[in-house]
Amino acid sequence: MPIREILTYPDPFLKRVAKPVTEFGPALDELIADMADTMWDEPGIGLAATQIGVDLQLFVYDLEVSRDHERVGVVCNPKFTLMEGEESDEEGCLSVPGYTAAVKRSARVVMEARDRSGNPIKVDATGLLARMFQHETDHLNGILFIERLSPLKRGMFIRRFKKLQARGDA
Ligand code: NI
Predict the structure, then answer these.
(1) 136 C-alpha to center of ligand 1: Å?
(2) What is the pLDDT along the chain (170 residues), one digit of tens a residue?
(3) Pick from 13, 29, 127, 129: most CB atoms within 10 A?
C-alpha cells in the first residue's frame, strides 16, 4: 500500500475540523491500510486522516508498532463521553517533527466511536491509550499538541521553528 505524505506544521489543512465518516466499505479499508503503512513507516503510534490531507474523522493506532494490518486500531467519528483526572506526559507528533513537550491530558477517557465497518464501539482508556485517543481526536478538530502548551512554552516552540525555518531546516 502506498505511503502517504504527512502534512507538517504550519500546513493550514491541519487546522481543519474534519467531516464525519459516513461511507464504510472498500474505499475506507484502502485508506485505512495506507494510513497504517504511513504510520509504521515513520514509525508512529497513531495517525489521523487530516495529517495526510484527508478530510475525515478517522484515525488509526498501534501502540506496539506491530506492523500487522489485522491488529491496527481504527476509530471513526470519536466522541468522549467521560474525561476525568489529569496527567502530564511527554508527547510528540508526526506533523511536528523533531519536537516533544509535556502535555496535560485527562487521565481517563471513555470514547464512543464507530469501527471500520460502522459498528458502534466504546472504549474505556487510561495511560498512553487515553493520551493517544485525545491527541488523535484533537487532530480531527484541527488542534495540534503545541496548542495545548502554556503560552510561554508555545512561544518558545514558535521562536525555535522560525529559527529553523530561517536556516532552511523546516
Ligand atoms: Ni499528532
Answers:
(1) 6
(2) 799 999 999 999 999 999 999 999 999 999 999 999 999 999 999 999 999 999 999 999 999 999 999 999 999 999 999 999 999 999 999 999 999 999 999 999 999 999 999 999 999 999 999 999 999 999 999 999 999 999 999 999 999 999 999 998 77
(3) 129
C-alpha cell of 40?
509504521
Residue 4 lies in a domain: no
Which pTM does this prediction carry? 0.96
Domain of 94 in residue numbering reads as: 12-167
Going by C-alpha positions, the residue among 31, 21, 48, 34 that lies closest to residue 114 is 21
Q: From the candidates 30, 42, 112, 136, give the one annotated as an active-site residue.
A: 136
Q: Is the peptide bond before 10 cis (omega within 30 degrees of 0)?
A: yes
In a domain, 157, yes or no: yes
Q: List the beta strands (DSSP E) in 15-126.
A: 46-48, 58-61, 73-84, 87-91, 101-105, 108-114, 120-126
Q: What is the CA(142)–ligand 1 centre distance, in A? A: 11
Known catalytic residue at 90: no
CATH number of the structural domain spanning residue 88 = 3.90.45.10
Kindly report the backbone phi and psi dihedral angles of residue 140, in degrees, each rounded to the nearest multiple of 5, phi listed first: -70, -15
Distance from Cα 153 to the centre of ligand 1, integer Å:
18
